[in-house]
């Protein structure tokens, strides 16, 4: 079976594949480093061309009946689900994630977003406001051209999560995937055209930071939605602010998972595995600071160490592989440096370690302090830091002692305590007795340095639309003279 994944062209502009005219962009299979495709970056002129095409297509797209826009998204979702294996295999080649993950967690999640917003289309209405004899109403209108900038950990899911609410609202989009994972967005563009979407409504440009900067500052762009790190978010937010552009920022985290003594041990360990090691730990919402109440700590760590022995690292295309490689060597080096720093700081290595080559095994530190780098810095790899606490107030204060605020989780069989603790945690997305489930029906996003705005659910519509207020006078007009 060939590992080639060369697309028809590197970009997708105005309804057709277009070859980039910038630098080469090799796409490597994270498992063995082999080049599976070679793309070319967009030039500044090509970014402008894509934005101009999106601007030209937007009025007619917005004028279409919302239910018609919704039907196109729904058809695209059906196409994705029909081709799920083919798309999952491409996602595995693009990201290095095990195919047992990509079959259930990547394109299916993207299809769910398209289907959800397709069904929501006909409900996108304004409000009538009675004012006595007079009255007012609001219109919910599109923003115009939206720029989407994706990350490499869930590239196709992110493309769908950003495109679906934007497009159903009557906006058009120019999407730039991560230069590490450029292939899925091109497939999405093809599928949307096949589903009946007019040319120019969804466009794809490729490239590194300079391409992203050109996209964010293009005069046609009215909205920027970024998934990425906090440092990247700061730069993009500042650039977007120059033009008073709307923004959604889904950034990094160092999220707490608090496990009380009365928690179901097996479920809490399962959640810690999902919150730290799924997708080789490359998930922004991961609960990488696991606060263990003193009474459950030892049993929890013993059971976790036993469970991770079932990890199977290997070729991500092997359906038995359940732990894939790190996306690239630079990221692997960063994770290994963090692991060494944890050891040097005096934390106890329960299991795992630096690994070899592209692979880093599930790694657990215990006996850590809150001020250690492994407890303060986002590592974005399969590294969990266990911290011990005694009472509820202590756990909450320490959990909130970070500039991040993306996610949080609580495990306890006392539901009053669960809701009480969640109410005091400074995080935008929270779980009780589970972790990292992100259905499209539920808003997703962070607070503090972890972001602005929300993705998914009806809440995302607010971030891809603006309200126009209209006052209707039903009688005469009084004036002072």
Automatic annotation (TrEMBL):
SUPFAM superfamilies: ALDH-like (SSF53720). InterPro entries: Ald_DH/histidinol_DH, Ald_DH_C, Ald_DH_CS_CYS, Ald_DH_CS_GLU, Ald_DH_N, Aldehyde_DH_dom. It comes from the Bacteria. Residues 20-470 form the Aldehyde dehydrogenase domain. One of its GO terms (molecular function) is betaine-aldehyde dehydrogenase (NAD+) activity. The keyword Oxidoreductase applies. It is an enzyme of class 1 (oxidoreductase). Transmembrane segments: none annotated. Keywords: Oxidoreductase. Pfam families: Aldedh (PF00171). This is Betaine-aldehyde dehydrogenase. It comes from Paracoccus aestuarii.
């Amino acid at each position: 079976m060939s590992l080639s994944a060369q697309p028809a062209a590197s970009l997708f502009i105005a309804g057709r594949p277009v070859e980039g005219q910038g630098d080469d962009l090799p796409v490597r299979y994270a498992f063995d480093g082999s080049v599976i495709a070679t793309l070319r970056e967009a030039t500044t002129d090509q970014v402008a061309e894509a934005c101009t095409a999106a601007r030209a297509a937007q009025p007619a797209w917005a004028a279409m009946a919302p239910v018609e826009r919704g039907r196109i998204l729904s058809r695209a979702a059906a196409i994705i689900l029909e081709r799920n294996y083919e798309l999952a295999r491409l996602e595995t080649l693009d990201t290095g994630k095990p195919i047992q993950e990509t079959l259930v967690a990547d394109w299916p999640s993207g299809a769910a977003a398209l289907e959800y917003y397709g069904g929501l289309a006909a409900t996108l209405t304004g409000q009538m406001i009675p004012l006595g004899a007079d009255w007012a109403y609001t219109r919910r209108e599109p923003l115009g051209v939206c720029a989407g900038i994706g990350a490499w950990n869930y590239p196709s899911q992110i493309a769908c999560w950003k495109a679906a609410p934007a497009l159903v609202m009557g906006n058009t989009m120019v999407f730039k995937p991560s230069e590490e994972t450029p292939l899925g967005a091109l497939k999405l563009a093809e599928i949307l055209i096949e589903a009946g979407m007019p040319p120019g409504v969804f466009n794809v440009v490729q490239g590194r930071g300079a391409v992203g900067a050109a996209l964010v500052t293009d005069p046609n762009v009215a909205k920027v939605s970024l998934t990425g790190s906090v440092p990247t978010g700061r730069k993009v937010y500042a650039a977007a602010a120059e033009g008073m552009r709307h923004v959604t920022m889904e950034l990094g985290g160092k999220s707490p998972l608090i496990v009380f003594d009365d928690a179901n041990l097996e479920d809490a360990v399962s959640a810690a595995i999902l919150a730290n090691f799924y997708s080789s730990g490359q998930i922004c919402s991961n609960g990488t600071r696991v606060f263990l109440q003193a009474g459950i700590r030892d049993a929890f760590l013993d059971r976790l160490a036993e469970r991770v022995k079932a990890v199977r690292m290997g070729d991500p295309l092997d359906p038995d592989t359940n732990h894939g490689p790190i996306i690239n060597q630079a990221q692997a080096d960063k994770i290994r440096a963090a692991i060494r720093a944890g050891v040097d700081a005096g934390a106890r290595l329960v299991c795992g370690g630096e690994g070899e080559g592209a692979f880093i095994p599930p790694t657990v530190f215990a006996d850590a302090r809150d001020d250690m780098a492994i407890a303060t810095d986002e590592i974005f790899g399969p590294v969990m830091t266990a911290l011990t606490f005694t009472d509820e107030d202590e756990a909450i204060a320490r959990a909130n002692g970070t500039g991040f605020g993306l996610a949080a989780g609580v495990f306890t069989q006392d539901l009053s305590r669960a809701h009480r603790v969640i109410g005091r945690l400074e995080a935008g997305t929270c779980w009780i007795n589970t972790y990292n489930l992100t259905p499209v029906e539920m808003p997703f996003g962070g607070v503090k340095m972890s972001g602005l705005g929300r993705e998914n659910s009806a809440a995302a519509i607010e971030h891809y639309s603006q309200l126009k207020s209209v006052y209707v006078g039903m009688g005469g007009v009084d004036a002072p003279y």
